[in-house]
Design goal:
heterodimer, A: mainly alpha, MetI-like fold, 15 helices, 73% helix, B: 316 residues, mainly alpha, 74% helix
């Protein structure tokens, strides 16, 4: 088939499927206006933005905005390193706990109890961080908090930056582990029971069965979830860092991440140049990393690659 | 896939019946059960504390602090909530409207898209699949979205901004498409077409009803996202009559902050303000009102979770 024929065929096929084109149109348009246009909006990192001229009309100013990044190095490095630190902690610990919980519940012989516990464990994910921060406050408040009350101390949690990596990690794990394990549990539910029977007959004990059957069956899902998360390496759960910390200025050293910084800047409507440059950096790094990660996975185990 | 699944499930049950007696309930199982139960109780405790605080007497809370065993119970928290009740009712209305509107628009649009994507000889589908995939890998971020939506589209203070930007997501499209491909029999749709039904009718009368489990699961997750969304509301909503519940919570926290930061307020002023400044038990009562509906509805949707959300084949 020549190229011309091919193109003609393509158009004929599309015309034949015009109903399907129409069906895809609403999502296409919504995604275009609310996801794709903002991608184009990233050009404002290279512009001297003002509201009157808008994104496209504002004058270009080259890499001027990125000079801000190097000029206010301490803010930028602080929030970038915090973002990365929390990403690593949350991803490693989170994946480990998700898998551990999934295996524990899957191994439990008392199925009814397991199902009940699981449905309670999922509940925290349904509580917004705007509400979670009040829960955390009930525990950590200096005067009325449960922890200070029980210990008989007066620790000022909301002005001591040093406590917050631990606090945020606990809150995040409390919030996400129950729901995170659902995916892994559904994978485990699909594992052929005969594999376990066979292993039992061959004399494998519980540990050996977990090591050689359960964990290997989870590897593809773990890979996919890690791959997906790599693209969000520069993004954080904004609510955790903005709400749970009560956006407290004294905690910035350990709790400021790029997303919470950007949110504060937008609400304060201040220096958009710096913020735009930081946003651009955030989006591009995420894209590059997910492409690299996918490339690596493709080399090792093509089956598990995303694209 | 669904038939296969059912068969597997049946087989599993048979296995359990056959080997159930043989499965040892050794001491290890009891230890595991106890550990898991304790862990679950620890996870549930913070939520319980909120409910208890909401019913604790305000003075007791202020003097003794938050406690699981308050010395005095009271309904004053909920009474205080009723005092700013009008805003609460408006906010409930806004949140319900946004949640239902966003979820329904999203489910309908994405199901149609997923259906089109699953038509095998549709040549444009390769392009559409990539088009839907890209936003998962790359996005413009908060600032760019904010500027585009407010200064370009002029949608500041519009409820559309709470609904549309998050109603079509890559992950949900993939889940829906995978479900159509694996669990809605192609023959059924073909036979409907032979009987003279058009594409639209086939979709609405055959495909959509068969997608119920996945629609329930995806829909509930979407609804939760809408219900819990505070960030877009904080960025875009100004007027009181468009304030959703989560923004109300954020505002309450801000006003407590202002009160605390004000430092030494004269006692008489404090007494005068008691009616308007939300206090601890009132705050917790509001949290209960905001979180409650989701926790109450959740059990009804839970059975669809494992079934509808298995995105085992992310690649489709």
């Amino acid at each position: 088939m020549t190229r011309k024929e091919n193109i003609l065929h393509f158009f004929r096929n599309t015309w034949k499927h015009r109903v399907h084109v129409l069906m895809a149109l609403p999502t296409f348009l919504i995604m275009f206006f609310f996801l794709y246009v903002p991608m184009g909006g990233l050009v404002m990192a290279f512009k001297n933005f003002n509201y009157r001229d808008g994104i496209w009309g504002s004058p270009w100013n080259g890499i001027q905005n990125f000079k801000f990044l190097t000029a206010s190095k301490s803010i930028f490095t602080n929030m970038t390193s915090n973002t990365l630190m929390y990403y690593v902690i949350f991803t490693l610990l989170g994946t480990f706990l998700n898998v551990l919980l999934a295996i524990c519940i899957d191994q439990l012989v008392f199925k009814k109890l397991g199902a009940t516990l699981q449905s309670i464990l999922i509940i925290p994910i349904f509580i917004s961080y705007a509400a979670v921060q009040f829960l955390v406050y009930a525990f950590l408040s200096t005067d009325t908090g449960l922890i200070n009350h029980l210990l008989g101390t007066r620790i000022r949690f909301y002005s001591e930056a040093g406590y917050w990596p631990t606090i945020l990690t606990i809150v995040k794990m409390w919030n996400s582990v129950g729901y995170g394990s659902v995916l892994y549990m559904s994978v485990l539910a699909g594992v052929d029971m005969q594999l376990y029977e066979a292993a039992q007959i061959d004399g494998a004990n519980k540990w050996k069965q977990i090591k050689h059957i359960t964990i290997p069956s989870l590897i593809p899902m773990i890979t996919v979830m890690l791959l997906l998360s790599v693209g969000n390496i520069m993004r954080s759960d904004t609510g955790l860092f903005y709400q749970v910390t009560r956006n407290s200025g004294t905690l910035v050293r350990t709790t400021q991440v790029i997303d919470s910084y950007v949110l504060n800047q937008i609400l304060g409507s201040s220096n958009f140049g710096f913020t735009a440059a930081a946003s651009f950096f955030q989006s591009i790094v995420g894209l590059i990393l997910i492409i690299i990660a996918n490339f690596v996975v493709r080399k090792i185990e093509p089956e598990n690659a995303l694209f | 896939m669904s038939a296969k699944r059912k068969e597997e499930k049946a087989q599993e049950k048979l296995y359990d019946l056959q080997y159930g007696v043989k499965k040892k309930k050794g001491i290890g199982q009891y230890i595991l059960a106890v550990i898991l139960t304790i862990y679950t109780i620890i996870v549930a405790l913070p939520v319980v504390l909120v409910f208890i605080s909401a019913f604790t007497d305000e003075k007791t809370l202020a003097s003794e602090g938050f406690s699981y065993f308050p010395s005095k119970w009271s309904l004053s928290g909920f009474n205080a909530v009723l005092r700013y009740g009008h805003q609460l009712i408006v906010s409930y209305g806004v949140t319900i409207l946004v949640t239902l509107g966003g979820t329904l628009i999203g489910l309908l649009c994405m199901s149609l898209f997923a259906y089109a994507l699953s038509r095998r000889d549709f040549r444009l589908r390769g392009f559409l699949a990539i088009y839907a995939m890209i936003p998962m890998l790359f996005n413009g971020g908060q600032l760019s979205g904010y500027i585009v939506f407010t200064s370009m589209y002029g949608l500041k203070d519009s409820l559309w901004l709470l609904m549309l930007p998050i109603c079509c997501t890559t992950m949900n499209i993939i889940i829906l498409r995978t479900y159509i491909q694996n669990s809605v029999p192609e023959e059924l749709m073909d036979s409907a077409k032979i009987d003279g039904a058009g594409e639209w009718r086939t979709f609405f009368q055959i495909t959509l009803p068969l997608m119920k489990p996945t629609l329930a699961a995806v829909g509930f997750m979407m609804a939760t996202t809408y219900w819990n969304d505070w960030q877009n509301a904080l960025l875009y909503i100004d007027s009181n009559n468009k304030k959703p519940l989560q923004l109300l919570l954020v505002n309450i926290q801000k006003s407590i902050e202002t009160l605390l930061n004000a430092g030494n307020i004269p006692a008489s002023a404090l007494a005068a303000m008691q009616g308007t400044i939300p206090q601890y038990s009132a705050t917790m009562a509001t949290v209960v009102m905001v979180v409650g509906p989701i926790i109450i509805l959740y059990p009804f949707f839970q059975k669809y979770f494992a079934k509808g959300l298995t995105m085992g084949s992310v690649k489709g």
